[in-house]
């Protein structure tokens, strides 16, 4: 929308001349010849900028300037043919942005107006940023480090655009929270935010998940289904782990991004939607392009505004800010009497490398709270390996009583099997990887008392992954 300019000038020939100066800019202009007309027009027209003559037939222009109050006050440029130093100082004190003395050259006139409008946009951006970034938080993102400040600024600048945002970063750095922040900071915040994990959906179902399908389009399609693209109409579609998408489907996604149109599976009718795309991956997308697993044209179509989320080990004191926020959040979820963490815990958190990033930190916090009912958390309550720098990973769970596994195992778990996991004495000791994985997942589920979502969180995978593996094991035994 072009800026709206109100010209308050009682000399008709000058008002028309000022309007003619602004015709090439495409700005919308209105003229008021008196102070009363100006006040009425301001209320109805809500201008972005006011060109205000001081000498008006019914009042002093500075009285109008002093009446302008509020956060959304327009920019004001004062015009006068009788300028004095005192008048200029008074105008600036009352909130004027600039002061022009008549007669005014066209180029000087336009430059002054453009500068004032740029200043208004900058102030708006700063105010919006200050409103969303408070006490180390930017929407759901937490952290005051310089690296995260840079991320917040990119999000804030990109939010009003429809340009695609491409988020990269290690697993667990908070890419979905970053995508949500892009959505929440944008004019689409009141519309849907739809997230789709391309790695968690089977290859033969992902097209239906994105575009939807009609009843009978394939075996199991018992009803019409709207896909993520239709659900996100007017809002934001977040495609997580995009590099996991099948290469054959990438061409359809490219066309959808280019045109905004798609076809449901089983339909010949095109549907058009208004969607803002945000994508994420924990891989290097250029390496995926070079390996032939990701289309080069799709990469350049999506890689418009890149955001790289730093790993937790590079964020300094952010680790403590995030940990304290997580302790508060999870203690409420678990009805835990938590009050604080000791300095020893803080030092250990800062010294640890956090290979699993924020997700690993969250799992550690939940583990600590669930297994320790004390109000104050000390270092001996945190998983034991945290204080050791000779390991790259935390233990998933502390010791717990033996509980029968949810899914029957093919063999008993005994000391020899535990020994075999870490030591291979001969070729006969080597087991298929899926057997080891199955046994480990079953033990994790058992320790979590058959709570699969909780076991999934501790194993750093999605619950759907565990359900899918359990179904695969059951089908293999059938």
UniProtKB/TrEMBL annotation:
4-aspartylphosphate: residues carrying this PTM: 53
Sigma-54 factor interaction domain: residues covered: 141-370
Residue ranges of domain Response regulatory in the record: 4-117
Pfam families, sorted: AAA_lid_14 (PF25601), HTH_8 (PF02954), Response_reg (PF00072), Sigma54_activat (PF00158)
Keywords: ATP-binding, DNA-binding, Nucleotide-binding, Phosphoprotein, Transcription, Transcription regulation
Domain of life from the UniProt record: Bacteria
InterPro entries associated with the record: AAA+_ATPase, AAA_lid_NorR, CheY-like_superfamily, Homeodomain-like_sf, HTH_Fis, P-loop_NTPase, Sig_transdc_resp-reg_receiver, Sigma_54_int
PANTHER family, alphabetized: PTS-DEPENDENT DIHYDROXYACETONE KINASE OPERON REGULATORY PROTEIN-RELATED (PTHR32071:SF117), TRANSCRIPTIONAL REGULATORY PROTEIN (PTHR32071)
Protein name according to UniProt: Two-component system, repressor protein LuxO
Species this chain originates from: Pseudoalteromonas aurantia 208
Encoding gene, per UniProt annotation: luxO
């Amino acid at each position: 929308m072009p800026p709206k300019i109100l010209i308050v000038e009682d000399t008709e020939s000058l008002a028309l001349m000022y309007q003619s100066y602004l015709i090439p800019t495409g700005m919308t202009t209105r003229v008021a010849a008196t102070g009363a007309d100006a006040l009425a027009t301001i209320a109805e027209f809500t201008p972005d900028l006011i060109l205000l003559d001081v000498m008006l037939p019914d009042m002093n222009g500075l009285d109008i300037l002093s009446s302008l109050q509020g956060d959304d006050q327009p920019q004001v440029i004062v015009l006068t043919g009788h300028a004095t130093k005192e008048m200029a100082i008074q105008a600036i004190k009352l909130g004027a942005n600039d002061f022009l003395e008549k007669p005014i050259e066209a180029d000087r006139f336009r430059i002054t107006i453009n500068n004032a409008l740029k200043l208004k946009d900058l102030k708006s951006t700063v105010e919006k940023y200050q409103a969303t970034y408070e006490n180390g938080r930017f929407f759901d993102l937490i952290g005051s480090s310089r690296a995260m400040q840079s991320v917040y600024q990119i999000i804030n600048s990109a939010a009003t655009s429809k340009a695609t945002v491409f988020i990269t970063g290690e697993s667990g750095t908070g890419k979905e929270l970053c995508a949500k922040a892009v959505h929440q900071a944008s004019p689409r915040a009141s519309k849907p935010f739809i997230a789709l994990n391309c790695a968690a959906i089977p290859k033969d179902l992902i097209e239906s998940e994105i575009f939807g399908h009609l009843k009978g389009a394939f075996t199991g399609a018992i009803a019409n289904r709207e896909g993520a693209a239709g659900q996100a109409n007017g809002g934001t579609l977040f495609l997580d782990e995009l590099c996991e998408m099948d290469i054959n489907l990438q061409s359809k996604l490219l066309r959808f991004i280019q045109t905004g149109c798609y076809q449901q599976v089983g339909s010949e009718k095109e549907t058009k939607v208004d969607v803002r795309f945000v994508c994420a991956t924990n891989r290097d997308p250029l390496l995926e392009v070079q390996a032939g697993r990701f289309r080069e044209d799709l990469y350049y179509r999506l890689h418009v505004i890149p955001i790289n989320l730093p790993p937790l080990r590079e964020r300094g004191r952010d680790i403590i800010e995030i940990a304290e926020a997580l302790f508060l959040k999870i203690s409420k979820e678990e009805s835990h009497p938590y009050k604080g963490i000791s300095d020893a815990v803080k030092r250990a958190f800062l010294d640890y490398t956090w290979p699993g990033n924020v997700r690993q930190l969250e799992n550690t916090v939940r583990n600590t709270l669930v297994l320790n009912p004390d109000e104050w958390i000390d270092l001996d309550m945190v998983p034991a390996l945290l204080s050791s720098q000779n390991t790259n990973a935390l233990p998933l769970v502390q010791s717990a009583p033996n509980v029968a596994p949810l899914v029957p195992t093919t063999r008993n778990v005994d000391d020899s099997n535990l020994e075999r996991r870490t030591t291979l004495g001969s070729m006969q000791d080597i087991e298929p990887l899926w057997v080891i994985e199955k046994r480990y997942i079953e033990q994790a589920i058992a320790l979590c008392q058959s709570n699969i979502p909780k076991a999934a969180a501790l194993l750093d995978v999605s619950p759907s992954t565990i359900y899918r593996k359990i179904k695969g094991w059951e089908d293999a035994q059938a």
